[in-house]
Amino acid sequence: MRTRIIDQREEIHAIIRSCRTCFVSMSMHDHPYVLPMNFALDEDVIILHSAQTGRMWETLQHNPRVCISWMSGEDMAWQDIQVGCSYRVKSKSVLVEGVVEFIDEYSEKERCLQLLMAQYSTRQFRFNAPAVKNVGIIKVHIEKLTAKEFGAKASRENR
């Protein structure tokens, strides 16, 4: 079993879109903080939403740099059932490093909410004005994107 680097953007986007949750890591004053969150992918931007108050909001205002991870697949595989070190979770993962932008403009917030809902449903949604005004919309502009497949079968070239 091998670890394979994934460098095709379409495959990376497919992994992200197959997930229901991302994990957003941030830090303030050397205190790391990780949250599971809903998300949307919009080209080279990750869209998140939250309340406009609280620990996450304050942390991101202080330090807008984040790392986001996704993982799909949780099947166990092994090369030798008797050897613990040969066990591996067959999965694909994506890591994004980026910088946060807070969105205030009403129509852009509404567009982002539509993208967020499209990640989880094929239904069309409408949002009332208080909901749009009161939600915090965060765009994470991707600076670095990496992806790997763990537990991949060895190709004939690698044997």
Unreliable stretches (pLDDT < 50, length at least 5) are none
How many discrete structural domains?
1
CATH class call: Mainly Beta
Mean pLDDT across every amino acid position: 90
End-to-end distance? 11 Å
Biggest sheet descriptor: 8 strands, antiparallel
How would you summarize the topology of this molecule?
Elements: E1 2-5, H1 9-18, E2 22-28, E3 31-37, E4 40-42, E5 45-50, H2 55-62, E6 65-78, E7 87-103, H3 106-120, H4 129-134, E8 136-152
Antiparallel strand pairs: 1-8, 2-3, 2-6, 4-5, 5-8, 6-7, 7-8
Word description of this protein:
By secondary structure, this protein is of the alpha+beta class. The chain has a single domain (2-153), classed as Roll (Pnp Oxidase, Chain A). The protein is built from four helices and eight strands; from the N terminus they run E-H-E-E-E-E-H-E-E-H-H-E. It has helices at 9-18, 55-62, 106-120, 129-134; strands spanning 2-5, 22-28, 31-37, 40-42, 45-50, 65-78, 87-103, 136-152. Strands 1, 2, 3, 4, 5, 6, 7 and 8 form an eight-stranded antiparallel sheet that branches. A hairpin with a 2-residue loop joins strand 4 (40-42) and strand 5. It is globular. The chain starts with a strand and ends in a 7-residue tail after the last strand. The model has no long low-confidence stretch (mean pLDDT 90).
